[in-house]
Automatic annotation (TrEMBL):
Domain Endonuclease/exonuclease/phosphatase span(s) in chain numbering: 62-251
Species in which this protein is naturally found: Saccharopolyspora erythraea (strain ATCC 11635 / DSM 40517 / JCM 4748 / NBRC 13426 / NCIMB 8594 / NRRL 2338)
Protein name as it appears in the record: Endonuclease/exonuclease/phosphatase domain-containing protein
Signal peptide: 1-32
Domain of life: Bacteria
KW Signal (keyword) present: yes
Length: 260
């Protein structure tokens, strides 16, 4: 057998390299890696700033809320037990867009005022500036079911460019709260796939009534271990929760980290 010369070895190597290049050029490219889901964080706050409860701290909870929002930069914030000027201050100092709805007074038929003439008392939703501005479709109304107290509790659903969010603080009467929860969840479910709900629902997971009974089909719920909850559609993947200290309130800030 004749020995293979160096020239022939070089020719074979060049041919192999050329064939490999051709095969690479015509090969079906591997499937592109799916883009990583973007984070989407929800912060539920009960600031106890109406001035009626023992937890009222003359605005310290608002200071703490502003600090938490600046630090964590959630995509949406749902707020309960706040005064209208609190929302003006929160939007001004964080750059978030906001919508406020006053709770009604059964005594006067007008909005329920906060103590010491600090404006209307109610609930609100804030949206990170990257999530767009408020669009048509705002829902704000008093619940059909009300307890025997002086307040006419309300629900608020605010649609923004990138998502919609609803909130409400429900009755301390569990049976009334259960009815209000169903109404709030139904309002949220009517706003489309990219919708969330956060609030102090005054219902516990595993309680009687159980907060899970009002979670819409195709949604899931996460709670802070007591009465604050966030509901989300399947368009949002769940990652984790965290309770944040809010000075001046007897409720933690309930942060729910999602992805979409």
């Amino acid at each position: 057998m004749r020995a293979v010369t160096a020239g022939r070895r070089r020719s074979v190597a060049v041919l192999v390299a050329a064939l490999a290049a051709i095969a690479t050029a015509f090969a079906t490219p591997a499937q592109a890696e799916a883009p990583k889901a973007a984070s989407f964080d929800v912060l539920q706050l009960n600031l106890c700033n109406g001035g009626f409860a023992h937890c009222y701290s003359a605005g310290r909870s608002v200071d703490s809320a502003i600090a938490a929002i600046r630090q964590r930069r959630p995509d949406v914030v749902t707020l309960n037990e706040v005064c209208a000027p609190d929302i003006t201050r929160l939007t001004h100092e964080t750059g978030y867009a906001g919508e406020f709805t006053p709770i009604g007074s059964k005594v006067t038929g007008a909005p329920q005022p906060c103590s010491e003439g600090r404006g209307d008392y109610g609930v609100a939703v804030l949206a990170h500036p990257d999530q767009g501005s408020l669009v048509d479709g705002l829902v704000e109304k008093q619940f059909a079911a009300q307890d025997g107290g002086k307040e006419a509790r309300v629900l608020l659903c605010a649609p923004f460019s990138q998502f919609a969010a609803c909130t409400g603080q429900l009755s301390m009467d569990g049976n009334v709260a259960a009815q209000q929860c169903v109404e709030l969840a139904q309002a949220a479910a009517g706003l489309g796939a990219a919708t969330l709900l956060g609030g102090d629902l005054n219902l516990a997971e595993g309680g009687n009534p159980d907060v899970r009974a009002c979670v819409p089909q195709g949604w899931y719920s996460k709670g802070d271990g007591t009465m604050q909850h966030v509901f989300a559609t399947g368009a949002f993947g769940f990652e984790r929760t965290e309770n944040l200290p809010i000075e001046g309130s007897d409720h933690p800030g309930f942060l729910v980290e999602l992805a979409r």
